[in-house]
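User: For documentation purposes, I need each entry recorded in a consistent format: the amino acid sequence on its own, followed directly by the corresponding structure tokens. There are two entries in this batch. Please keep commentary to a minimum and don't merge the entries.

Assistant: Recorded as requested. Entry 1:
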Amino acid sequence: MHVDAKCPIRFGEPCTLCVPGAHGPQDCQLVALVKADPELAELRSEMIRAKREHV
């Protein structure tokens, strides 16, 4: 069974391999950057929270 990877940055959207050289979220430098930066990680959490409230 094939499962499409979801983008951890654009919550609910598929991984589109937007970063050259990435094979999915597991080796995406954008994902690594956002998760490593406390301010970006908090902003990501706020965006996910807001999106879930509108569903």
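Entry 2:
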Amino acid sequence: MNRIMMRNSLLFGIWVCCCLPLCAQREKMSKKQLDVFHSISSNEIMEYVHELCKEEYNGRLAGTGEYMKCAYWCAELLSGFGLEPAGDAGSYLQHFRMPTTDLLDCQLRRQEGDKRVEYTFPRDFYPGMNSDSGRVKDAEVVYVGYGITAPEYNYDDYKGVDVKGKIVIIERGIPYRDKDEKKRFDLYMRYASESYKLPRALEKGAAAVLLVGKLAHTGIDFRKGVIYTHIDPSMVDDLVAKAGYTREKLRKQIAEKHQPCSFNTGNTLEMNVRTRHYPYATACNVIGVIKGVDTTSSIVLGAHLDHLGNNGLMFPGALDNASGVALQLAVAKALATSGVKPEKNIVFAFFGAEERGIKGAIHYLNHPTFPLDRTMCMLNIDMVGNGNGLAVWGAETFPEVAGVFRQANDTWIHRAFEVTPYERATSYSQADGDEFSKRGIPALYIATTEELKPMYYHDPRDREETLTPEIMEDAAKMLFLALPEIVKIKGVLREK
């Protein structure tokens, strides 16, 4: 064989090796499936995002009428796609109680000699979105570090200071920068959350709380008598300056000495918060299903429908999580119209109140539509609208699943692709998937990598223009290809 023939033979062999998987994939797909695959469109996905971010939904806060209006819109789409309802009493909606609070006003003023210094929203503070109503007039301001009492570590931020009737400043997180990871984890899990710190301040007699870190935080439960707001770190510097401190100096001193540094700042503050609480408000999950050949076994796709609402500014929540909802709607429509009967049920769950403590996912798990012991896994879709690469976090531990996603990407999508090992959640949940994981149902996370645009997390600037539509289209196409193959895997996924 001469060199030309050898070269041509080699090139032909390479072509065959590269093209056989592609040809096999094409042979598996009918013309209808192929047409549906190509019909998945970034334009349609962005239309869903645009709808979800509309002012009429007012930031989609679970427990409000605006959220319910958005849920009805989502349910109507699932009905139009042809998914079967899988909520309460033959509907798409699965209701649960979700107390909510209307924020009417929040004012902060500091007395400085004969004049009052007015702090302004949103520059200096974000109101506490589940604060009780109340007015605290000319109260002394006390810095109490992290607001933690941990006798087992001989640590107490309240030791030696009187906070009765006063306003306390509390830092986020924990004070320790200890090398002992077990100690740090234990402290974090017991003491870092606001659900511990705010009641503790109330027990000590504090009249109100300033939480350091300007956040729109809807996950803090309403408690009668707890008045609070979130303040910018620059406001802490204003309030501790009389004592010769800066916030950074205080944090550094506490961390290095592993000892509290709590003191009266020498300032007085007037704090006036007006809210209206609705203890019997409700929210819902929106659930539809494409029934499988085996109707007793399922895979769950989950994307949280809610966001942070309005604290004086509306939070559109484009990336978090209109992107995930829009992507999941696109996949639901494509699979429902493809004519493919999956081996197992494919459940599309749009969870409510993720931002308010994972309440919707917890409700589903306590009242499952389909048996949990026959739910093979959960795929969590959250914040997938900004990037240039694709990933499935946790899939590395399940090679069959990882292989399906990788083949779909390598054959059709051609993006950078990653998988990571699975780590089962054990305690504090930060996403819907964590709750499934704690119940023994592996939760894998559909993600995007290589961020292309600025990311605004829990920020009113999280708008449509910060998304990259093409990556959402490709993520939807990857799921469209992968899901019918994944549900062919026998049984429930288990850690190796």
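Summary note for entry 2:
The longest helix spans residues 3-28.
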